[in-house]
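Please review the protein record below. Let me know how this chain folds according to its tokens.
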Amino acid sequence: MFLLAAAFNVMPALIMEPTRAELVFIGGAHALFLVRLASAHAAASKQRTIDLERFRQMKRATPS
């Protein structure tokens, strides 16, 4: 969803025929945003594994 929002956000800037400086600024900002999305995705996937293991430990420790 955020990736789609970033794509739609950059579209108007590209349609307006920006200068080189504007392209660098807008492209750089969007590139940093995409790096942030990728790092958040990686962190969330690691956290999911940790949470799943904790849940399994709790389930084993709980008497039936």
